[in-house]
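Run log, item B.
One chain of 197 residues. Sequence copied directly from the ordering sheet:
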Amino acid sequence: MKKAFFLLSMLITSVTSFAQYKYQGEDEKERGFKREQLYIGTGLNVGFSQGWILGLNPEVGYSLNNFLDAGIATNINYITQNLGSGYSYKFFAFGGGPYLRGWIINQFFITGQYEFNRITEKYKDPYGTVKTAYTSPSVLVGAGYGSRQVGRSQFFTSIMVDVLRNPNSPYIDRQTSSMLPVFRTSFMFYLRPKKER
């Protein structure tokens, strides 16, 4: 737990130190909220393994400057597996939380995200059905590569791990208690500026 908070605080400290840098020629009167720095988008996860996996990661965020994005991300994941001989498994998780994404070198970024997930599972066998529901917090940290043009669009792929390591986390292997990598590919689109009259 202490390691997770230490890593998250180091991530935030390093990102905000980059945010202090100001480009030469940047105009002081350009401060304040700018609609063209607000973006929305989503990532999509699809997979097949004795069934199928479908996931969405909608998010809304704001580019604070040329280095730092902040926002709210959500996740919705559904997994269904037919294990044969009358056995099946279904998993549904949804949650969300705040994130920071620091673009440290050209197209590379580091990221940190707190998530709180609600999870339901359903296991069915010839003898009956077992349903469980629980919650789990996660602290995802990682890095990624992509293209970011403030005011236009973002496209990126990232890999993160849950450093909180809660046993109920959807990002922890239940059998081995090891961290599972979280791969995300996302598309973001910035809102257009208001037209001046």
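Observations after the first pass:
- Residues 15-28 have pLDDT under 50 and may be disordered.
- The chain has one domain: 2-16+49-190.
Flagged for discussion on Thursday.
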